[in-house]
Every structure is written in C-alpha cells, then in structure tokens.
Write a structure and sequence with these properties.
- By secondary structure, the chain is an alpha/beta fold.
- The protein has one domain: Rossmann fold.
- Helix content is 33%, strand content 23%.
- The protein is built from six helices and eight strands, in the order βββαβααβαβαββα.
- Strands 1-2-4-3-5-6-7-8 form an eight-stranded mixed sheet, sandwiched between helices.
- Helix 1 packs parallel to helix 6 and helix 3 crosses helix 4.
- The longest helix is centred in the last third of the chain and has 19 residues.
- Pfam families: Abhydrolase_11 (PF20408).
- This is Alpha/beta-hydrolase family hydrolase.
Length: 203
C-alpha cells in the first residue's frame, strides 16, 4: 500500500493505492459524506478488486484531508475527484482503464463525473436515491446519466431508497442497511463477480 497526496483545485486530496498482482484496470473509490476510506464496504471492495486483478485507489476528498467533517459542495467534490483521476491516470496507471466508484456520496460523485472522466465502468455502493423519508427528492437522474456499465450494491433495508435496474445497470441487493456492513461476504461476491464480467468486456 502506498499513500500519496494529489493537488486539486480545492486543496490536496489523498489516495491510498493498493496494487493487484496483474492489474488490468484501476478502481477509484470514494468515501461517504461523513465517513472515510476505512468503511467496511470500501475495505471489502478493495480486497475483491485486487483479487480480481484490479488496482485500487481509495480517494480521500480535500475536506477530509483538511480535517473538516462537513462535506464540500458537489461542484467542489466533482472537480477534486476529476483532478485525482487525471493525475492517477497519467502518473501511476497510464493506459489502464479507469473504473469510478464509491459509497453513498462518493457513488454520486462517481456517477456525475463518469462521462467527463472517461470512466470505463461505475461501481456504486449504497447509492442514496433520496434522503430518508423524502422520496420526492430523488437523485436517480445521476444514476440514469451513466452511459457505461454500472453495478449498484444496495442494502435491502436502506432508508435512502432502492435504485432501479436499467440497460447496462445491475442492482444487487444484500442483507443490511445503508452501511453495507451486515454481510460483507455478499458484497465481496457481488463485486467480484461483476469485475469478472467487466474485465472480459475491457480486454
């Protein structure tokens, strides 16, 4: 594991790099609004990805690096994420396909930036379809804007809603709530199987 700082328009971000034995792609994983990269589902997905042959960069947004708890506005999150993706793509993982991913708020960032960042696929963990109890405040359009293959792993009891499947978008429901920590084995299996299919598409 290697930890590096990356300059962004909104202060330094940090990336924790986990190498796969034979890396065929790179997964950039972002954290949730109030949590960090040590979240159980992010740790599980890092293990599943590296075992499948995918390098992983766990990305800490600048507000977390600076020690702030409150997340930055979406525009700043997206700009910082794209700066990290560009730097990693040029300096560390040249010519490898980039897969964008994250949990909760990080999943929203991955979806919003997938096109401009030229992501080959998108992985969403606990996508927050709407605030709890507010289905009229839907964010489903962010998922619908993703044109590349996508996987959403969602807890069966997630109070942030349940996404709909669509062309090129798979939904896998696992036991548990928004934290996705009730059954990390189910998360591991779902992500590992998806990577197997995605890597065949990218070869």
């Amino acid at each position: 594991m290697t930890s590096i700082e990356i300059a962004t328009p909104h202060g330094p971000a940090r990336a924790e790099l986990h190498g796969a034995a034979e890396g065929r792609a790179v997964l950039l994983l972002g954290h949730g609004a109030g949590g960090g990269i040590a979240a159980p589902d992010l740790v599980t997905v890092t293990r599943a990805a590296t075992e499948a042959g995918v390098h992983v960069a766990l990305v800490e947004q600048p507000y977390r690096v600076a020690g702030r708890r409150a997340p930055a506005p979406a525009r700043q999150l997206d700009a910082a994420w794209l700066a990290v993706a560009e730097d990693l793509g040029e300096r560390w993982f040249a010519e490898l396909p980039l897969i964008f991913g994250g949990r909760s708020s990080g999943a929203r960032v991955a979806c919003r930036t997938a096109e401009s960042g030229q992501a080959a696929a998108v992985l969403c963990l606990a996508f927050p379809v709407h605030p709890p109890g507010r289905p009229e405040k839907s964010r489903h359009a962010e998922l619908d804007g993703v044109e590349v293959p996508a996987l959403v792993v969602q807890g069966e009891r997630d109070t942030f809603g349940r996404p709909e499947s669509a062309h090129r978008r798979e939904i896998v429901l696992v036991p548990g709530d928004h934290s996705l920590k009730s059954d990390t084995d189910a998360v591991f299996r779902a992500v590992g199987e998806w990577f197997g299919r995605i890597l065949r598409l990218l070869d």
